[in-house]
Design brief:
single chain, alpha/beta, TIM Barrel, 9 helices, 8 strands, binds pyridoxal-5'-phosphate
Length: about 230
């Protein structure tokens, strides 16, 4: 049985190989280990093997693990990547380093108001519904420029870029399309004067496609921790 350490090394090798094929430096892509449903012990194992950034989907579960791993707090970046309801923003603002799933101004305003003054500004990405599926969360691409300009004004947030979870596709070419669209949208925002440095896209099944199209952060769960 491959250990978490083995799978983390394989995933890092996949990221490096994709960077090489895309003609990009390896340090231009950050690996976020998505630990949802896995235990604090598994996260400890991944941390011992070198992982430093972890992504959680569910607020309560994430908070419990942050608490269980308090001894490693200074050495771990915690990212919330799942949907966030407005009644749950306070503990998120108080405990996480990043939120990737901001898709409306009200959530961003609450996070900014609730971010403690003693902490660094909260890093946020706008989640974009890039494949246009009715059921998925994320802002519609057309709403993103105005939303980004408004979020960039909030004092206790730092808008870092865009995030998407595209519709699954089997082959590399169809996987690349939505990632290319997200990268194009990000370029438009940068041309508009926003200082963005993060394109959060690519998961276990499509990280190569995402890296080809410019991902700077890939969110990988299954390939590191195993099946959920
Ligand atoms: C679960 C999840 C991931 C990781 O997916 P894998 O296919 O397990 O790599 C990435 N991003 C989001 C938003 C997720 O919910």
């Amino acid at each position: 049985m491959a250990t978490i350490k083995d799978k983390l090394q394989e995933t890092t090798a996949r990221v490096e190989s994709a960077c090489a094929k895309a003609g990009r430096p390896v340090h231009s892509v950050t690996l976020l280990a998505v630990s949802k449903t896995f235990s604090a012990t598994d996260i400890r194992e991944a941390h011992a093997a070198g992982a430093r950034r972890f992504g959680e989907n569910y607020v309560q579960e994430g908070l419990e693990k942050i608490q269980a791993l308090a001894d490693l707090r200074a050495d771990i970046e915690w990212h919330l990547i799942g949907p966030l309801q407005s009644n749950k923003t306070r503990p998120v603002a108080e405990a996480f380093d990043w939120v990737h799933s901001v898709d409306r101004l009200k959530i961003a305003q609450r996070l900014s108001e609730q971010r403690p003054g003693a902490m660094a500004p909260l890093n946020v990405c706008i989640q974009v519904n890039i494949s246009g599926e009715a059921s998925k969360s994320g802002a519609a691409p057309g709403e993103v420029p105005a939303l980004a300009r408004a979020i960039a004004q909030l004092p206790r947030l730092r808008l870092r870029g865009l995030m998407a979870v595209p519709e699954p596709a089997a082959d590399l070419e169809s996987q690349r399309e939505p990632h290319r669209a997200l990268a194009r949208l990000q370029r438009e925002l940068v041309a508009d004067g926003l200082a963005l440095d993060t394109l959060s896209m690519g998961m276990s099944a499509d990280l190569e496609a995402a890296i080809f199209e410019g991902a700077t952060l890939v969110r990988v769960g299954t390939a590191i921790f195993g099946k959920r």
